Amino acid sequence: MTERDRLAAQVRTAGLRLSKADLDALLPAWKRYQALVEELRAAIAPDLRED
Amino acid sequence: MRGAAVAQPGQSLRELVDAMRRGQLSPVELTDDCLARARQHRALQAFITEPGDATRRQARRAQQRPARKEPRALLGVPIAIKDLFQTRGLRTTGGSRILRSWVPAADAAAVARLRSAGAIIFGKTNLHEFAYGVTTANPWWGIARNPHNPQRSPGGSSGGSAIAVVTGMAAGALGSDTGGSIRIPAALCGCVGLKPTYGAIPLAGTIPLGPSLDHAGPMARSVDDVGLLFDVLTNSSRWEMMRRSRRQGLARTRIGVLRGNILQPALPAILREVDRVAGALKRQGLAVREMQIPELTWTVAAQLVTLRAEASASHARWLRSRPSDYGRDVRLRLQLGTVVSGSDYLLAQRMRARLREALRRAFDQVDLLLLPTTPITAPVIGTRTVRWPAGPEPVDGALVRLTAPFNLTGVPALSIPGRPDDDGLPIGIQVVGRWDDEPRVLAIGRLVEELSK
What we know:
The structure holds 2 protein chains of 2 kinds.
Chain A: H1 3-13, H2 20-50
Chain B: H1 13-21, H2 27-40, E1 47-49, H3 53-63, E2 78-82, H4 109-116, E3 120-125, E4 137-138, E5 142-143, H5 159-166, E6 172-177, H6 183-189, E7 192-195, E8 215-220, H7 223-234, H8 238-244, E9 254-259, H9 268-283, E10 287-292, H10 299-314, H11 316-321, H12 328-337, H13 342-365, E11 368-372, E12 385-388, E13 391-394, H14 395-400, H15 405-409, E14 413-417, E15 428-433, H16 438-451
Helix pairs in contact in B: 2-3, 4-7, 7-8, 7-16, 8-16, 10-12, 10-13
């Protein structure tokens, strides 16, 4: 399954129907979003260990 | 003396109120002046619904109440309203096609307070569609343009409000700020804008974007005017009390000049201007020191996750039923928000708590923070990327980099025009204070204003 397929599946789960053009446009933004979330997770990880 | 053009475009709101109280200016004359300027600057696309006959009717009604006997703070003063706030009997579009014909039956709470104070509701200003962006390049109502250079953006999302204030179309304006939407256009257009403490001004009747980040706030041509509007909008006299006390206690104010990664990169002219202001404050006897808050580096990620999730929740119904009625940029942001998971959102809230704690610690050491409002001046319309020596940065990301931390944390933040750059483009200086410390933020803001003339 490609990243594009995973994004398409998530969007469908959210109840949206995206055009091919919108999905293509969304993919780079989604990748940037995922990278930011990973950075957040890494930054918060020490806090989580202390919980 | 009465007559045409009694009010000058740069006159402060307080000067206009005083002139009307002395009988030197009437609400109708002032409104006619403002209407003439709105026509003169129509190409800047400041308004979605231009002020019209209803505006003149309000002015005539205000004129029938002798200002000298009428203590209302804003009697006869034209105030432009961002088209995100409901206005009774006046179309409210949110800058969208979806709401292009909606005429609300009631005012938003903030508008009602302005109206109660005697303000003339002076049209509905252009904004980024649903306030979800920072350029005011609106696909349905026109691309707003910067009064200093029409090839450049006024910033957003309250771009039309800033244009109206700077050009003298209105004496003040109401804006909203979810990631910087009051302060960014204030900085790029050269006016003053205040994002107060979260919740200080009620948001009832305001189209929501990110409910935990949304703030309403005033914009005007001077800090004192913004303070006057703040008092009206918060139904208080907190600024008036500070203003009357003059600078008592301010000499002991401790200022932290923000340094560190969050400021990198930024235009050298902007960093020099902040340093000039910091030096001038120091010469006034204030305790000025440099300070770093490393946690602010995480702002972009926490803001993005929080806003994407909340905005998509706010728009869930229309996003499913009418996706093609959104402009492309806003639609993509909203669609992205639908895939934010609950665990991602909670992660962002944990980081947000950490940011708040970092600010609390910073405010143990200083009373106020000083930093640029934006790391760039007004970008050319249509530019999507800032080309820094270290690499590219999206324009919208650069514009919110220094403002969004204070939406996430909810502290008051004020943008004041510093001295412009060599091309005459405005530079915004940001003063940030503790929760509920708006009077001190405004007082030091007024000092910054005086030191920048």
